[in-house]
Design a protein that fits this description.
The complex is a heterotrimer of chains A (338), B (292) and C (409). Chain A has 338 residues and is mainly α. Chain A has 14 helices and three strands. Chain A is globular, with a radius of gyration of 20 Å. Chain B is mainly α and 292 residues long. Chain B has a single domain, classed as ABC transporter involved in vitamin B12 uptake, BtuC (Orthogonal Bundle), CATH 1.10.3470. Chain B has a two-stranded antiparallel sheet with strand order 1-2. In chain B, helix 6 crosses helix 8 and helix 9 packs parallel to helix 11. The radius of gyration of chain B is 19 Å and the shape is globular. Chain C has a four-stranded parallel sheet. In chain C, helix 2 links the parallel strand 2 and strand 3. Chain C is elongated. The chains are: A mainly alpha (338), B mainly alpha (292), C alpha/beta (409). The interface between A and B is large, with 57 and 57 residues.
Amino acid sequence: MSAIEEVATEAPAVEAVPKRAMTLGFGTSLVVLGLLVIAPLFVKNFIVFQLTMLLIYALAVLALNILTGGSGQFSLGQSAFYAVGAYTSAILMEHVGMNYALTLPIAGIICFAFGFLFGQPALRLSGIYLALATFALAVAMPQLLKLGVFEHWTGGVQGLVVTKPDAPFGLPISQDRWLYYFTLVVTIGIYIASVNLLRSRSGRAFMAIRDNEIAASAMGVDVALYKTLAFGVSAGITGVAGGLGAIAVQFVAPDGYTITLAISLFLGIVVGLVEQLPASIVGSAFIIFVPNIAEGISKGLSGAVFGVLLFLVIFLVPHGARQVAIVAQQLIGKLKKN
Amino acid sequence: MELFINQVLAGIATGAIYACMALAVVMIYQAIDHLNFAQGEMAMFSTFIAWQLMQWGVPYWWAFLLTLAFSFAGGIAIERLLFKPLAKAPVLTNVAGFIALFAIVNSIAGLTWDFTIKQFPTPFGSSPFLGSQLISTHQAGMIGVTLGLLILLYLFFQFTRIGLAMRAAASLPESARLVGINTSWMIALGWGMASAIGAIAGILIAPVVFLEPNMMGGVLIYGFAAAVLGGLTSPLGAVVGGFLVGVFENIAGTYIPGVGNELKLPIALALIITVLVLKPAGLFGRPIVKRV
Amino acid sequence: MLSGQELRIAAFSTAVIAFAATAGSALAQKRYDTGATDTEIKIGNIMPYSGPASAYGVIGKTEAAYFKKINAEGGIKGRKINFVSYDDGYSPPKAVEQARKLVESDEVLLVFNALGTPSNSAIQKYLNAKKVPQLFVATGATKWNDPKDLPWTMGWQPSYQSEARIYAKYLMKEKPAAKIAILYQNDDFGKDYLKGLKDGLGAKASMIIAEESYETSEPTIDNHIVKLKATGADVFLSVTTPKFAAQAIKKLAEIDWKPLHIVANVSASVGSVIKPAGFENAQGILSAAYAKDGVDSTWENDPGMKKFFTFLEKNFPEGNRLDSSVVYGYGVAQTLAKVIEMCGDNLTRENVMKQAASLKDFAPDTMLPGVKLTTTATDFAPIEQLQMMRFKGDKWERFGDVISGELSN
């Protein structure tokens, strides 16, 4: 095995992307937004619940997008931050009686700090070693949550039941729909903020680090600061997603935040392609709906069917949904001309 | 003191399991520069094949050899069919492929052989080793086989042409091709060997933990941890890492009060991360020099 | 001779009475809630078909096969059972999604035998709020017996705490000076047991000298056994799931430690635990049971088990009789069939719960002789009885009476 790593000539783990490709065109964005706003009015409450979960996982996938696509650091440990966010919200709501909306910024800030701190030792690790370290974090989290010393707050293995909020001001919409719109607003807000972040100086610093860390450092980028910042931001957003998740599902327990969740989120960015923020929704849809499809096809072999579907996806679009998006945009371009 | 010695010995015995798995992990890393998440499942599947052969009346050693051959061929087949097309795809896509493979193998094994545990025979017997009640003859045999494998691998990589070719193909593929090495087949060979080593690991582990489809899940994590601790470039490191992880985990569980027992795995992993922060290439790995 | 007027009054009264009678019986005719019709009853179920607990997915498959058999025999009072089962991968958020799907999209009459304490805890509030029966949950956690606060939730199997209390009673009687070491799985199953044992021992909880927990992610629990042997305990309580129970039995023999070994009922299966671990290593182990074991030759000619074996042969050939989960699935499915039968034509959710709370000495084919299911409006624990047994030769020998695990002294 090589003692020398050819950094410059290696195929990049993550491909460089022009700024333009980071977001959908303005028109497409409006259409997607419109769909997201109207959809819940026409479907049953249960579907609204699924859509809410779709948005929540999209947020978590977005966070991972920023970390991996933005700054080139692997993480198989997002489930840990998600869990911390979820439990923060649950504990604040149930033990302290705080309003659900207020718990989200707190969850975000706590997870940001947590991610930033984790980013420190992670500085010295890269590639496979970083993946392993984050993997370790994800594996450790359920066990930490089960610890006897925290049981009074966390409910231990039994978990905590969370009360679902009603629409405010007595608005005549169901709890599910209210929660959906609330989540939608939060998601859009964070999305806009993330796009701005990636377009800003910090974002450029992230991408410089992703593409060639040594060159970036030689150019004066404070690699350590930005890498930990990326971790922090990513963790913070995942924490907010976790908090929303706790409110939507109305329950938190260690078994809900295992390494399986971390792997699912990871698959979300592979499928939804790294760096394409809007594709986070595609990734999220993959996470939620493909297992259901696999189960529908064969209960006994649902895992095998899921694996086969995953292979199909990665064979057909090895560069993720971006290929689909490029093809789609080309088609739209052609339609516009005619 | 006696408890300490007991725990160390027990740790070495468990560590042998991790060491075995770690060897397979290092093997695949040598070949493809990635960690194959499905390695454990492939090993489990091979072990089931061996079990099935024995159910059909094939004697132990014949079943062993047939399984090795099958695993070797299977590993190559999987690489050629599923992962060669992904050679140019980003790393993340490859990892997704490993995850998909994991799901497929686990699911098929569960359907074919169901989830009840099965006894798996050992050629070494289960009596106390050298009179010690803490290590059985099987566990001693396991340690012996692991060390034997280690030596074989070392000889292979250092002294055979193919071994040298594999190392060249893995570290500097373009240069290797320039000297006439078929890098593509080297990768396939690496997969086959890793798969075969995994089969040996599974066959050794099953008598201790009992054979069932989810047998290797936990073992794989420890195997990774051991391999990383020892240095992903060094088979010796993998084995030493395995024993260290086993012993450390036990000591931590026994002597750290209160949470030590509940946090055995996280503590072991924390240790490894600490080592990595201090020595990024692992204990025995060669440091990676980054050339810009 | 009646006058014309009296005749008319008589005719009128007769007509009124006749009308009232028919109207009355019209009121006693069929009543349905969502999920039940003249021809079909839709039943929802959530099982871990994938993920860490996928070994228990076979319970769902057994139940599906059982209901298929019932349908082949004409259904229950002419209605076929439509068994809709979804996978939750043992993840609470997924369980919530599947429960909502069952209730709001598939519109089932009730949710039956959902598995796992985390999953059931997650969907409990929702189902009770929606007034959908959460019937015969597949977990032994003690909290399912709470008719006052959670009137729509009911358990089935004996709770872990009641089983542990039976062992506590036994130990206090037979070995009052015992030093107990416990190995328990670090989840709700293990912790519930531990609590039951401590409650059962009461003032004598100091008999427990060592508590050792393990995670299911550990490949082997051998080192825990080594640690416990060093404590010098003479009673070993193994609160473990099958794989780890077998490892424990084997390791105990290997290190030549011979305490009084008690194993939890979930791991008492001869075929899936004792045999792989080695009969010679398991002599003298104690446990308790409420159901018959599929490979115990004692039941070869038992009429109930014969029905079970026929079911396996004809309707569920891939089912493995040595897997206690299969025996379990059969028993609980049979219980549900009985409850539905008891509902008659009144298939409202309320009546389902009412009938489920009115079981009297019902004995499914697979229960041990003497174990009967009984429920009342204040007692939502159908099975509370267990019988202790000792392993001898190649089978379990039951001894003593069928005991109830109530917290009484």
